[in-house]
Amino acid sequence: MTDDAGTTRPDHREPDGSTVARREPALTLTERVFEAVDRRLPYLFLVPALALVAFLVVYPVVRAVELSLHEVVLINLSDQQFVGVSNYATVVSDPVFATVMRNTVVFVGASVLGQVAVGLGLALLLERRWLGGRLTRLFRLAFVLPWATTGVIVAFSWQFMFHPRMGIVNETLRALGVATPPTWLNSTRWAMAAVIVATVWRGVPFSLIFQTSGLQSIPSRLYEAADVGGASPVQTVRHVTVPLLWPFVAMNLVLVTLFTVNVFDIVFVMTGGGPLHATEVLSLYMYETAFDVGAFGRANAVAVILFGLNVAVVVLYLVAFDRGNGGAR
Fold first, then answer.
1. What is the full DSSP assignment across 100-169?
2. What pLDDT does 301 receive?
């Protein structure tokens, strides 16, 4: 039943079967205001977070796009001349840019594969608890320490370990019979491998934590059912662990790739992009364009390209994961 004010009231059924509409008092103005505020309160709580995202993410991106379309020199940022896409054309036509993009692809691909694979392997190894509970927790804590260390400290540590005369890497190779170990950071052949090793070493703990949380979310009764059904360890991993762990691996890949694409500190400290641009990646190229060359507009064009690369990576991953989930279904 609906009263004159348009408010629906639940009917009351009498013992004889007849129904009588309940008369409830209409809401006062104050009650209506409080009800309206209550409905909109969750959205109001989102306003500070949205404002922070707009200030820290949206505005810098818009500003970078704007500056990339202008000729801006570092010594006089107020003097800006609109040049359109000429900065992008200059960047793409730079012979070094092709080398930088190739280095970025190699660096990101190898580093991401190493971080996720080693992290997943360690998570599987420690989850079996063959070391015992206390030792497992101790090893997990030890493996997490590199992630808590700043990139600059990691870079200096590995720079010293790869030292051609005093570094532990070459000392170990000499002890194994290698007469002339490579000069890692001064070699165009081996410098990228050294930087990748340092990046993987620092990034493995994040993947370890991520995959450990995924493994611990799998109910133990599923493994017990697999054992009762006579499944081999390989079959258990294939049909139980992998399908349930896949969402964690997918998100781990996305985050690790985004972290690695934007790595700057390790490369900058260990090699500075050298020798002969052998380890120069996109983030370092952007820095050098801005502060070594002084072409701030061109550096923002590189920043926009780097941002586009991040977006493209996320989209490609999401499409691949969606297709994979569709195939699984």
1. HHHHHHHHHHHHHHHHHHHHHHHHHHHHTTTT-HHHHHHHHHHHHHHHHS-HHHHHHHHHHHT-TTT-HH
2. 95
- Per the CB < 8 A criterion, the answer to whether 80 and 72 are in contact is yes
**Inter-residue contact 274 to 187 (CB < 8 Å):** no
What residue type is assigned to position 23 of the chain?
Answer: R
| pLDDT per residue as tens digits for the range 41-65 | 888 888 888 899 888 888 988 999 9
pLDDT digits (tens, 9 = 90+) for 132-172: 567 777 777 777 788 888 899 999 999 999 999 889 999 99
Given a contact cutoff of 8 angstroms between Cβ atoms, the answer to whether 284 and 268 are in contact is: yes
| Residue whose tokens read 């990046």 | 199
- Range of lowest pLDDT (8-12, 43-47, 54-58, 107-111): 8-12
Helices (H), the chain: 29-53, 59-68, 86-93, 95-127, 133-148, 151-161, 168-175, 191-216, 220-228, 233-236, 242-261, 265-270, 282-291, 296-328
